[in-house]
């Protein structure tokens, strides 16, 4: 997910849950453009370990949107990020990202064409591929292994889930079921946290459980003359073991929404989780580069 400010990074961390979305192995470290050529450098992925989710296939499009509101009321709507994601019953995943998403420099976006980065993770085989569809190359690396996560049943996932909030000054309050948990702190300048469990519902045809976390920074805690209220709302599917919808509203950074659309729980075609026929497979032992002609 592309995050545009440190404040939003903090917000996502607050609502993160295990196996929330497809895991990413390949991280773009740098990019450089000279003339009509962009060189992407990827760091060594050997330290990454993948925890597969088995028995919960899906296909979906992940859309991330961000809107900022300026002091004069002007709204800035950033172009949405779009990714196409798939997972099969074996826990193999495939994520397709536009080539300009966090990879190609801004000045090269207009001539990047239809270049896409395709990441395939195969925990059973212990390998991951980064597919370069422009040059017909599959960069392959070896993964560390983790035991698979089995999808939870609806009943087990809904029973007695506890909520715990830890305040900035160390206060802790817990609740279960639909209770609201509130953290109190003796420090008047520390943020106050309120965590509530929302009524379960269906989104995109799947059962989801929702939580909302509200964080309030008191007056003068950040030089502010009024309280600053930030809310994070997340909707998690116990059966798919992933987030379906995440909403963040922070007056300092704007509104951010991550949502899955066009969600299907049908088994994807097995060929999606293998390098295409005719592609050259290159085993990578350390950092590597990818060269793209515009």
What's the short story on this structure?
The chain is mainly β and 294 residues long.
Layout: helices, strands, pairs:
Blueprint: H1 6-14, E1 28-34, E2 37-42, E3 49-50, E4 58-69, E5 75-87, E6 93-98, E7 116-122, E8 127-132, E9 137-142, E10 144-145, H2 154-158, E11 162-166, E12 172-176, E13 180-183, E14 192-203, E15 206-217, E16 228-237, E17 242-250, E18 254-264, E19 280-283, E20 288-293
Parallel strand pairs: 3-10, 9-19
Antiparallel strand pairs: 1-2, 2-20, 4-5, 4-18, 5-6, 6-7, 7-8, 8-9, 11-12, 13-14, 14-15, 15-16, 16-17, 17-18
- Specify the biggest β-sheet: 13 strands, mixed
* Average residue pLDDT: 76
Rg of Cα set: 21 Å
Q: Please, how many helices?
A: 2
Order of SSEs, N→C? HEEEEEEEEEEHEEEEEEEEEE
Q: How would you sum up the global shape?
A: globular
By secondary-structure content and strand pairing, the structural class works out as: mainly beta
Describe this structure in words.
This protein is mainly β. The chain has two domains: 6-151 and 264-293, no CATH class; 154-239, no CATH class. The chain is built from two helices and 20 strands. The protein has helices at 6-14, 154-158, and strands at residues 28-34, 37-42, 49-50, 58-69, 75-87, 93-98, 116-122, 127-132, 137-142, 144-145, 162-166, 172-176, 180-183, 192-203, 206-217, 228-237, 242-250, 254-264, 280-283, 288-293. The strands form four sheets. It has a 13-stranded mixed beta sheet with strand order 13-14-15-16-17-18-4-5-6-7-8-9-19, covered by helices on one side. A three-stranded antiparallel beta sheet has the order 1-2-20, with no helix packed on it. Strands 3-10 form a two-stranded parallel ribbon. The chain is globular, with a radius of gyration of 21 Å. It starts with 5 loop residues before the first helix and ends with a strand. Residues 1-21, 101-112 and 153-177 have low confidence and may be disordered.
């Amino acid at each position: 997910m592309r995050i545009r400010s440190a404040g939003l990074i903090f917000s996502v961390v607050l609502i993160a849950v295990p196996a929330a979305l497809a895991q990413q192995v390949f991280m773009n470290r740098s990019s450089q453009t000279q003339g009509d050529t962009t060189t992407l450098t990827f760091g060594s992925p050997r330290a990454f370990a993948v925890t597969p989710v088995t028995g919960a296939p899906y296909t979906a499009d992940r859309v991330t949107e961000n809107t900022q509101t300026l002091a004069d009321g002007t709204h800035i709507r950033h172009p949405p990020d779009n990714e196409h994601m798939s997972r099969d019953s074996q826990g193999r995943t495939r994520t397709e990202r536009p080539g300009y998403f966090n990879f190609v420099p801004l000045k090269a976006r207009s001539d990047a064409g239809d270049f896409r980065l395709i990441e395939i993770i195969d925990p059973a085989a212990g390998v991951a591929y980064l597919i370069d569809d422009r040059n017909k190359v599959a960069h392959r690396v070896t993964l560390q292994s983790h035991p698979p996560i089995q999808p939870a049943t609806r009943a087990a996932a809904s029973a007695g889930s506890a909520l715990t909030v830890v305040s900035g000054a160390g206060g802790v309050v817990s609740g279960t079921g639909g209770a609201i948990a509130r953290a109190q702190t003796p420090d008047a300048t520390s943020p106050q946290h309120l965590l509530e469990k929302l009524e379960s519902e269906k989104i995109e045809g799947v059962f989801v459980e929702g939580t909302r976390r509200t964080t309030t920074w008191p007056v003068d805690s950040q030089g502010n003359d009024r309280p600053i209220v930030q809310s994070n709302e997340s909707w998690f599917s116990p059966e798919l073991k992933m987030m379906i919808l995440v909403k963040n509203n922070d007056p300092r950074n704007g509104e951010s929404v991550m949502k899955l659309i066009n969600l299907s729980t049908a088994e994807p075609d097995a060929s999606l989780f293998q390098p295409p026929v005719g592609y050259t497979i290159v085993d990578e032992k350390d950092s590597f580069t990818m060269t793209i002609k515009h």
